[in-house]
Amino acid sequence: MTRSELSRRLSAVIPNADLEVVALPEVPGIRLALLQQSYPQHLLDNDTVAKIMNTPMYWAFCWASGQVLARFILDNPHYVKGRRVLDFGAGSGVVAVAAAIAGARSVVVCDTDPLALLACTCNAELNGVVLEHASSLDSYSGEIDIILASDVLYDRANLSWLQVFLNRAPSVLVADSRVRDFSAENYQLLSANSSYTFPDLDESQEFRRVKVYLGCRT
Ligand SMILES: C[S@@+](CC[C@H](N)C(=O)[O-])C[C@H]1O[C@@H](n2cnc3c(N)ncnc32)[C@H](O)[C@@H]1O
Question: How many CA atoms lie within 13 A of 204 on its CB side?
Fold first, then answer.
């Protein structure tokens, strides 16, 4: 039911597009329902591209930063194990699913897009985990031990969220490939890896270099 509703909403914006369940190339232990790889993205006409820009379906992709942060969490589970986690800008929920698999005490997916929250439910079911929902950080009143955020700094105005995250939680993991001159108080670089958005959007090399930062309250 959840997946068929997502498929219906997807094809209303992108003609003949459907979802397919795939194991992520770099995190094969996680399966997600994403835009089918074979979809001929290069054949989209201008009207459809305009429609997509007005109704971005971020949840139908696993962004390069999401794939890297999910891998990082599974390789370094101590960041989330036994902790109350919130995945900010969850999209498909890839990072939240990784946190749940890695042993988080609870995981909240936070996204302003109701369809993203539906996609998170679908992907949680596919991976046998349970995720709570929040439609914004402000509306969530529960305790948070760590905030996870991947590919949410695509707009420079969003850089102010880095401090908001630390006001809300004692630690933060951010994965990003968009900000070249990342320098934020109380954040340090942990790792840098090459990756890509899935299905592949043929983004430039620059956007395939994903860095993971740890933010800690002083
Ligand atoms: C590029 S997607 C990244 C999705 C996922 N984290 C990943 O890496 O695959 C960014 C997501 O942030 C969400 N978003 C944008 N502004 C937000 C806000 N103020 N609060 C919560 N989510 C937000 C969007 O709806 C979208 O799902």
Answer: 2
